[in-house]
Amino acid sequence: MNRIKEIRKKKGLSLQQVADAVGLGNNTISRYETGKREPKLETWKKLADFFGVSVPYLQGLTIDRYDVLKVLNRAYYDFFKYPKPKSLVNCINDFIELVGISAPKSSLSEADLKKFSDKAFNYWNENFDFLFVCDRIEYLFDLPRLRVSNEEIERQVIWTIEEIEIKLTSTKISEAFDNIVDSTLDNYYENREKLVRFNTKKKIEEYTVLLFAVLQNFLDEMKNLPENSKEQYTPQIARTRLNKFVDERKKNQLYCI
Residue ranges of the alpha helices (H) in 132-228? Predict the structure, then answer.
């Protein structure tokens, strides 16, 4: 199904406004929206230019925000109806607890979840907007819709939420580790296979001694740091960190519509 009606409504436009913009009758636009009539390629281009989107996106051939949020909604509805452990639902529950927002079951009725109503869409869109500044989700938006299963969307959403939670739960100790150890440890791990196969014992020793040295520096630094605690990432702090991350990504135009 194409996205003409969806985008028109999002932009608050009437059928007549769209019709006037592309030089057609509003009945014709209505038929395009319902799929009773197929626009010519030239018309697709005019409509896409008017809405500020690509032709494949307007034709409904690519992944969009609605597709991703519908996967979250469906997973939660299934859990609502048949409570049982599920990775995506666990991620959703962990995230809403971390940032202190209301749970879907407190904000939405079973009917909202079942139909994926406007109220349901708005809930997911408002509270999980951060997904659309993340690389894994941006990657999905470049793929043809028919090549991407709901299971793949679900996997990417789970990984994205888990990555975001790491960003939001930093402590003085984790920050010290990132600053002192992280890059050296990553380099050692990524090159370990070649390191231990194609280098001399002296070279391997040098790399390993360096890793030990930065780990010791981290241990020395950690002695003066406060113990890990949730007080270092309260819901308010987590939301502030999340907003900062989203704002920075949007500022750099790394944002999916």
Answer: 135-140, 150-168, 172-177, 183-190, 192-198, 201-222
